[in-house]
Amino acid sequence: MNPLAPPPRFDEATFASYRPQNPAQATALTGAQAFAERVRARYDGPAFLRWLKRDASLRSGLYLVGPVGTGKTHLLVSIYRTLHPDVPCAFLHSSALFRATETPETYAKRLAASYRVLLIDEIELDDPANEIRLINVLKTLGRLGVTVAATSNAEPEKFMSAEFGRDRLERFISEEFRRTYHVVFVPGEDFRRGLAKPGKAWVGPLDAAEAAMRLAFERDGDTKLWLHRTDLLQRTIETERQALTADLAAHDALYLADLRTDSTDDALRLLRVVDDLYTHPSPPVFHFTAEVPPERWLSVGANASGIERGVAEKFARTVSRLHAMCDVQRVGAARGSE
C-alpha cells in the first residue's frame, strides 16, 4: 500500500459521491473541483511549456476549514483522485509531517523531488514546534513550485483569538493562508452521526454497561482485547505512539471499559489513540462503556488556557469519530443524564 495515498477508509470518496447538505457545502464542492482542474492544467504537458499557462488565480493552494464531519477530507481525497496518477500527488495526515525527523526544509525538498501536489489532512496548530515546522515546510514547498491543499477543523480567526501563540499564528495566517491560499469554509452538521456503526457503546451505570459489554466480548469470536481506561492511558505513557497503534490494530476488536477524561492530559492521550486507529488502514472494531456520552467527557471553562481550548477543539473531532465507529446505546439511567 502506498503510504502517501488516502487511507482505505476513503476508497469510495470522489467528487461524484460527495453529497452537499447546504449551499455552502455545494460551493465548497464546486471550488474544490475547480481547484483540481486548475492544478491539472498547471502541471499537464511538457515542463518547458508549463510556465506559459501558469494560473495566477490558483495561488499556492487551497485550505478547507470547518467543523467536524462536514466532508472536508472527502473533498481532499476527491482532489487526489482527480489528479492521480497523471499529476504526482502525495496525501498525508498532518501528524506524519509533524513526526518526521528531518528538518522542515529537507522534508519539503524530499517531497518536492517526487510530487507536484501535497494534500495534508487535519492541520492542527496548537503546538509551537508544529506551527514553526509547518510554516517552514509550506514556505519551502512554495519556493519549489509544489501546490498544497489542506483541511482543518479550526478557523484561522478562532486560532488568533487564543492566548496561546497569538502573534505566531497571526503571522502564519497572514503570510501563508490569507495571502497565498484560497480559504474555503465547509460548514454543516456532523454527517458521521448518521453512518452505519461497526462497533457499539454502552452508556449508563458502569455495572450495567460493563455487564452488557462483557457479554458481547464473550460472544466475539475474533481476536480481541479488553482494556480498562487506566490501563489504556498507562500504555500511552509506556509505549511509543506508533508502536501502540500497531499493537492495538493487531486485534480485530477493541473493548474499552469506563472511558472518560479526568484532565486535559487524559483527553489528549485518548484522542491520539482514537484518531490514530480511526485513520489506520485496518482498524479494530471499537466497543466501549461510559457513564455519560462522549460529548460530555471534556469541557473547558471561560478561564481555560489556550492549550486547554486547543485540546477541546481537537477532542470534538474524536467525539465525532467515536460516534462514527460505535452505536451508542443507553443502559439504565446514565449519571447526570437529562
Helix content: 40-55%
Report the biggest beta sheet as strand number plus sense, adding barrel if it closes: 5 strands, parallel
On the 0-100 scale, what is the average pLDDT?
Answer: 84
Low-confidence stretches: 48-52, 159-166, 334-338
Oligomeric state, counting identical vs distinct chains: single chain
Number of domains: 2
CATH class of the largest domain: Alpha Beta
The topology string of helices and strands comes to HHEHEHHEHEHHEEHEHHEHEHE
CATH fold group of the largest domain: Rossmann fold
Any idea what the CATH superfamily of the largest domain is called?
Answer: P-loop containing nucleotide triphosphate hydrolases
Using the CA coordinates, give the radius of gyration: 21 Å
How far is the N terminus from the C terminus?
Answer: 47 Å
Strand content bin: 15-25%
Widest sheet: strand ordering: 2-3-4-1-5
- Taken from the alpha-carbon principal axes, the silhouette is globular
Structural class: alpha/beta
According to DSSP, the number of beta strands is: 10
For the record, the CATH architecture of the largest domain stands as 3-Layer(aba) Sandwich
If helices are DSSP runs of H or I spanning 4 or more residues, what is the number of helices? 13
Explain what this protein looks like in three dimensions.
- Strand 3, helix 6 (128-143) and strand 4 form a beta-alpha-beta unit.
- With 338 residues, this protein is an alpha/beta fold.
- The strands form two sheets. Strands 2-3-4-1-5 form a five-stranded parallel beta sheet, sandwiched between helices. A five-stranded parallel beta sheet has the order 7-8-9-6-10.
- Helix 6 (128-143) packs parallel to helix 8 (166-177), helix 11 (241-249) crosses helix 12 and helix 12 (264-278) crosses helix 13.
- It folds into two domains: 8-185, Rossmann fold; 192-330, P-loop containing nucleotide triphosphate hydrolases (Rossmann fold, 3-Layer(aba) Sandwich), CATH 3.40.50.300.
- The protein is globular and about 65 Å long.
- It has helices spanning 23-43, 47-50, 72-83, 94-99, 104-114, 128-143, 156-160, 166-177, 206-219, 229-238, 241-249, 264-278, 306-325; strands at 61-65, 89-93, 117-121, 147-152, 181-185, 199-203, 224-228, 253-257, 285-290, 326-330.
- Mean pLDDT is 84; it is low at 48-52, 159-166 and 334-338.
- It contains 13 helices and ten strands.
